[in-house]
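Please fill in the sequence for the structure shown.

STRUCTURE ENCODING:
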């Protein structure tokens, strides 16, 4: 990896860490950059999972006040995320490499659609909220978090968007507190997948280290000042980078 490639990966890590804390689609920044510097798709995905763990952790720390009294909720939903992340990581290793190459372009396109429609979903969720219900999550929410964990362990782009939509619809809760839980669940999925990959796959430690440093800084920035960034600009960057990733995968 050249100096300029290393700088590009580091900057992508900062952007991904920030975006993940705010809404959750940072993989669409880092993954195509890793492909562009010549890292094979599966290795890029595994290295990305490692690199984004520190950013998720810094986001959780930044939202620690919103998480302070949500221990029971985190235990229930976090267990579902942990199991789902483990299943997703296992699928990434066990399925043929060709399956990843075929599935990921579709997953990226799905993630881009979710990023684009997220504001409309948020408005619809706010309009449908009703008082009452299970304060820690219904079986439907637990199942949804588990399935999202599988998605996150396998690839992960926009898992935060999925979590925000699920919890926004099924919990009667303030959006910032929901976002705090989303960051914690994403951390669990990324961490369990990374731990699994440590023993079962190949990691590009240079790329993972650069993303880790960048995402740690980006996660802290996202927790503090990310809400001031224009959402339209963030989504535009994510969509452009995601389309580049799809094109790269389809042409390779």
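FILLED IN BY: designer on duty
SEQUENCE:
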């Amino acid at each position: 990896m050249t100096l300029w490639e290393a700088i590009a990966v580091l900057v992508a890590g900062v952007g991904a860490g920030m975006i993940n804390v705010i809404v959750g689609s940072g993989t669409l920044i880092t993954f195509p950059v890793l492909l562009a510097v010549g890292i094979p798709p599966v290795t890029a995905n595994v290295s990305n999972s490692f690199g984004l763990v520190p950013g998720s952790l810094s986001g959780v720390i930044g939202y620690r006040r919103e998480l302070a009294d949500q221990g029971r909720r985190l235990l229930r939903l976090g267990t579902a995320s942990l199991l789902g992340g483990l299943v997703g990581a296992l699928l990434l290793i066990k399925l043929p490499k060709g399956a990843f190459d075929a599935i990921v372009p579709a997953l990226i396109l799905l993630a881009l659609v979710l990023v684009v429609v997220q504001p409309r979903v948020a408005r619809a969720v706010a309009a449908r909220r009703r008082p009452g219900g299970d304060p820690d999550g219904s079986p439907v929410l637990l199942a949804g978090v588990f399935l999202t964990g599988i998605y996150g362990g396998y690839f992960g782009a926009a898992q935060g968007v999925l979590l925000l939509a699920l919890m926004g619809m099924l919990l009667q809760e303030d959006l910032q507190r929901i976002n705090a839980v989303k960051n914690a669940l994403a951390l669990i999925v990324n961490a369990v997948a990374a731990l699994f990959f440590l023993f079962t796959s190949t990691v590009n430690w240079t790329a993972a280290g650069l993303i880790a440093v960048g995402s740690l800084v980006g996660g802290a920035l996202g927790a503090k000042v990310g809400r001031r960034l224009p959402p339209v600009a963030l989504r535009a960057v994510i969509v452009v980078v995601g389309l580049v990733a799809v094109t790269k995968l389809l042409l390779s």
